[in-house]
Amino acid sequence: MAVSEAVRGQLEGASWIRRMFEEGIRLTAEHGAENVFDLSLGNPLLEPPQEFRDRLLELARDEAPNTHRYMPNPGFPEVRAAVAKSLARESGVALDGGDIIMTNGASSSLNTILRALLDPGDEVVILTPFFVEYVYYISHNNGVHKLVGFKDGFMPDMDDLEAKISPRTKAVMMNSPNNPTGVIYPESVVAEIGKRIGDAEDRFGTEIALITDEPYRKLIYTDESYPFVFKHHPRTIVASSHSKDLGLAGERIGYIAINPDYPDKGEMMEAMVFSLRTLGFVNAPALMQRLVAGLQDVTVDVSEYRKKRDFIYDALTDIGYDVVKPGGAFYLFPKSPLEDDAAFVDALSVRQPEGGRGGGAGRHHRGRIAGGRQFRPGRTPAVGQLLRADGADLVGAFCRGSTGCRAGDRDRRGREDRSAPDGAGPMTLLKILLVWLAGWALNIWLARFDTRTTRLLVAVIFGATILILWEMVVRLYAVPSVILPAPSQIAAGFAANTAILWTDFVQTIVKGALSGWLIGALSAILTAIAIDRSPFLQRGLLPIGNFVAALPIVGIAPILVMWFGFDWQSKAAVVVVMVFFPILVNMVAGLAATDRMQRDLMATWAAPYGASLWKLRLPAAMPFLFNGLKITTTLALIGAIVAEFFGSPTRGMGFRIATAVGRLELPLVWAEILVAAIAGSLFYGIVALIEKKVTFWHPSQRNQRG
Question: What topology is assigned to 50-293 in CATH?
Answer without folding.
Answer: Aspartate Aminotransferase; domain 2 (3.40.640)
